[in-house]
Write a structure and sequence with these properties.
This protein is mainly beta and 64 residues long. The chain is built from 1 helix and 5 strands, in the order βββββα.
Length: 64
């Protein structure tokens, strides 16, 4: 999901390192976000099942 804005309004949440209890794959760079790494969760308001976890830098630098 390179462009989550196509799903409409987004909710952006910052996950602090102490909250990061699992590994995720970042859709921005396709690399792992390891447990204990702070990152952002992007949730389309109308489609919460499409939420994705992004490295903060990947989210900021994505193409819109």
């Amino acid at each position: 999901m390179d462009n989550p804005e196509i799903f409409g309004e987004l909710e952006i949440r910052f996950i602090h390192p102490y909250q990061a209890k699992k590994n995720y794959d970042c859709p921005g760079c396709n690399r792992s976000i390891d447990e204990g790494i702070g990152h952002v969760v992007v949730v389309p308001v109308e489609s919460p099942d499409l939420r994705r976890h992004w490295h903060k830098g990947c989210w900021v630098k994505r193409r819109v």
